[in-house]
Amino acid sequence: MVRRISPRSHIVLLLLLIIVALVQAQDQSGFISIDCGLPQNSSYTEKHTSIFYISDSGFIDTGVSKSVSAEFKINLQQQLSNLRSFPSGIRNCYRINVTSATKYLIRASFYYGNYDGTNVAPKFDLHLGANFMDTVKFTNASVTTFSEIIYTPLLDYIHLCLVNTGTGTPFISAIELRTLKNDTYVTQSWESLARLRRFDLGSTTNLQYRYKDDIYDRIWAPLGFDLWTQISSKLTNDELTQNHYQPPTIVMSTAAMPVNASASFDFYWDPDNVDEQYYVFMHFNEVKKLAPNETRSFNVTLNGKYWGGPLVPTYQSTSTIFSPSALAGESRYLFSLLRTEDSTLPPIINAIEVYTVKDFSRPETSQDDVDAITNIKKAYGVARNWEADPCGPTKYIWQGLNCSYDGNDPPRITSLDLSSSGLKGQISSYISKLSMLQYLDLSNNNLSGSVPDFLTQLQSLKVLNLGNNNLTGLVPNGLLDKSKKGSLSLSVEHNPNLCASTSCNQQTGGAISNKKKKNNNNHIVIPIAASIAGVLVLLAIVATAVICGLKKRKSKAVNIDEEQTAPNFSKIGPNQRQYTFNEIVKITNNFNRILGRGGFGTVYHGLIGDTQVAVKMLSPSAVRGYEQFLAEVKLLMVVHHRNLTSLIGYCNDESNIGLIYEYMANGNLEEHLSGKKNNAKLLSWEDRLRISVDAAQGLEYLHSGCKPPIIHRDVKCANILLNENFEAKLADFGLSKPFPTEEGTHISTVVAGTPGYLDPEYRDSNKLAEKSDVYSFGVVLLKMITGQAAYVKMQDEDNKPHISSWISSMLSNGEIKSIVDSKLQEDFDSGSVWKAVETAMACVASSSNKRPHMSDVVTQLKECLAAELARKRTDHATEQSDSLESDLASISVTTTEFEPIAR
Ligand SMILES: *[C@@H]1O[C@H](CO)[C@@H](O)[C@H](O)[C@H]1NC(C)=O
Ligand SMILES: *[C@@H]1O[C@H](CO)[C@@H](O)[C@H](O)[C@H]1NC(C)=O
Ligand SMILES: *[C@@H]1O[C@H](CO)[C@@H](O)[C@H](O)[C@H]1NC(C)=O
Ligand SMILES: *[C@@H]1O[C@H](CO)[C@@H](O)[C@H](O)[C@H]1NC(C)=O
Ligand SMILES: *[C@@H]1O[C@H](CO)[C@@H](O)[C@H](O)[C@H]1NC(C)=O
Ligand SMILES: *[C@@H]1O[C@H](CO)[C@@H](O)[C@H](O)[C@H]1NC(C)=O
Ligand SMILES: *[C@@H]1O[C@H](CO)[C@@H](O)[C@H](O)[C@H]1NC(C)=O
Ligand SMILES: *[C@@H]1O[C@H](CO)[C@@H](O)[C@H](O)[C@H]1NC(C)=O
């Protein structure tokens, strides 16, 4: 039950001792001593301990250097006078290189010393890698606390993390690592030892000892009680025969024994909770040269049960007894040293260590993944709080990552989202080292260079989004193949110089072609020409396949539709819609003014006569972009409605393919709701309702006015464009699909759309139906009502509920006013808002069966508008809208069964 370590043969030990003596004198080779907060590149030898400390700046990038208040510096060991404080970030981590599979004593020291002048010491957590280590707290400002563990790292680095738990700013004063012999403090592999107590018993000096007295720099605190007395003798290092634990000679030269020589020597502790497990190490040395008629012999009991013995300490020789496995399950741990009957002397004990068991077995992320992501972080200078283990603990997973966790295997990175992160330069080859990656989003950055072949090697990759960058060249065939097969969802649009088709021209930069280069690349031009021919053929087919007309209705709105169906350009008749590239150059004043980047190309401002237009040039881009372009052309040829952007003309001059639309002077709804656009208009409730009625009518037309119905598939605020009168038109038909089936059925497609607007039922089932558009439109309405993003930003940054669940929870508290966009300043008819909320919530019903048809939505929204106008009429009779009559005229009184929601 108890192992006993006996001294080795004297000759061997003498040799060892000589070496040890040398080591003790000067060598700190197993030491890493870090003074946190010390200026960069600084180092010093501490004058009390002779320990050589270095600055922490090479181990951490975050935090600020501070110093304790002057009155706390008196007689202080130097490493405690500086500290590093972490006012920002939840988790800040040191990364310290170590030798893997080596046993370390790791100590973190904390000395508050009123460094921040508040005189309130904080409380915070300490983590080692993915595992909780300790809660750091202080009894008062002048007390040093330290947290210490014995731990064998599996990797060649450790992460020591300070975690803000909302009870003050974490800080740290020093970090010390010391290697230990691997045959000491032996535990099960998953068990690490956190120091609970380490006492020098029988101390005659009442001093604390550490390095140089202890070659492992353990800190030994003196402990004495009235019931104990001391026994000691002078002892030199050479005289003491050590075992591998090597407790300091000064500690071993004194021992405690009971005052009453016939009584037992007792001590105990009570655990905070019964699940705590312990390891105990007791060190013995006979300090008295015994006479021949003297013996000292005793047994050790734990809670009255035999634990070890009889022990006969050897003169000037260290022996250690310890529990071979963890002690557990007791409410008190009472140890007694009982002298045996034949013993003439009472029991003694020189030193004791008690450790609690920590399970640090939760693995850190696979090292290959960590290396890769760390290199990616460096390569792009990612400015996120990416510290310590990427995947763990799950609560602190790096923003933009997702990981897979499989039992005791190291977690793997499966998802990397670095969209909109200001990335510059090439696509980093380190990405290919994330071998389990399934999802990669690098969109909305400024990446340049080619799309590298190594992306093809990522076997698990299912989603790759490279959209909206400045990538050039060709998309590797491997990726195109996967995309075609449907195993990869590939997006590369908005890369003006990227060619994502086997049949597209490498050097055509968006709209501007270069004739000389083109001649060198005839073999590429030919397929382009062929595909343009393809466009036109398809146009012809589709034009006959989809028929959109005007729904026969009695309402006045229809008449307005009819009036505005034909584009308002006298020069452009049905046969005059084609433009040459030279004409496009003139119209756009040599592509002088960019309006934005649309579905799959750049949109330029243009003038035809005095009429402003928007010209979208197809960049020879992704296959999908090309298909989207085709889809849009097809639809726009047959779709005409005043609430859908209309096509004025197109260009199919060699490799230059472009579309000319009517110009929408006021951008899109998103810009105005978010206030991001310069001169964004604060849209009133009435404005919002008019825009929503417009957009709903556009969508209704696609669903009900066309045969087969057309599903837009990307309804969102950014696709609702506003003209100079803030009339809304639905745009971007790149994803739209005619829907050739009976109502209630559906088609299967590759899921496409915009996160936050995407119908969850469609996302899960791949089955597309009109009601998916209704869902997206519901999200548009919710955003319009609340001014919030599709994923609502909460104070708790980890928590971003979808706007629909956010509103449900707010409504269940009966808080209608608190959900409405505060920018409206409560200037609205609350009945109207309430009805709009109900309509929107019905649209986002999780089951598509419960969602209304767009025609019902149009009706409901018109009623909302009527209510708001009625209020305004009473409030400000003079500001009555001219169009009031027509709006009221088209309101019908059909009621739709909406899902009841809590008021
Ligand atoms: C620290 O040393 C490095 C390398 O020698 C040097 O680049 C850096 O400027 C130094 N920093 C300070 C604060 O002296
Ligand atoms: C830690 O090790 C890594 C990899 O071997 C090395 O790149 C890095 O410079 C080391 N860090 C320090 C502070 O020595
Ligand atoms: C802080 O604690 C130390 C040690 O327990 C004690 O000596 C000191 O008086 C305490 N100071 C205050 C201000 O309580
Ligand atoms: C300790 O390390 C030595 C080599 O450094 C190795 O041979 C031995 O097996 C290790 N012992 C334990 C208990 O890990
Ligand atoms: C000393 O301890 C023994 C055994 O516990 C006890 O019988 C005795 O009364 C004690 N003597 C004194 C003076 O306390
Ligand atoms: C041991 O021997 C010494 C003399 O050598 C004597 O004074 C002492 O009383 C003896 N002690 C015991 C416990 O017998
Ligand atoms: C001490 O332990 C030995 C060996 O296990 C046992 O024989 C003896 O009775 C014990 N003595 C006391 C006083 O407990
Ligand atoms: C895109 O890259 C081209 C060179 O390949 C460069 O001329 C152009 O300025 C870049 N555009 C942007 C917006 O960075």
From TrEMBL:
Q: Does the keyword Ribosomal protein apply?
A: no
- Taxonomic lineage of the native organism: Eukaryota, Viridiplantae, Streptophyta, Embryophyta, Tracheophyta
Membrane topology value: Single-pass membrane protein
PANTHER family hit by this protein? OS07G0107800 PROTEIN-RELATED, SENESCENCE-INDUCED RECEPTOR-LIKE SERINE_THREONINE-PROTEIN KINASE
Q: Please state the Enzyme Commission number of this protein.
A: 2.7.11.1
Subcellular localization is given as:
Membrane
Query: CDD domains, alphabetically?
Result: STKc_IRAK
Superkingdom assignment = Eukaryota
Known catalytic reactions: L-seryl-[protein] + ATP = O-phospho-L-seryl-[protein] + ADP + H(+); L-threonyl-[protein] + ATP = O-phospho-L-threonyl-[protein] + ADP + H(+)
Ranges of residues in domain Protein kinase: 589-903
Q: Does the keyword Signal apply?
A: yes
Q: For binding ATP, which residues are annotated in this chain's numbering?
A: K616
Question: Which keywords describe this protein according to UniProt?
Answer: ATP-binding, Kinase, Leucine-rich repeat, Membrane, Nucleotide-binding, Phosphoprotein, Receptor, Repeat, Serine/threonine-protein kinase, Signal, Transferase, Transmembrane, Transmembrane helix
Bilayer-spanning residue ranges: 524-550
Recorded protein name is non-specific serine/threonine protein kinase
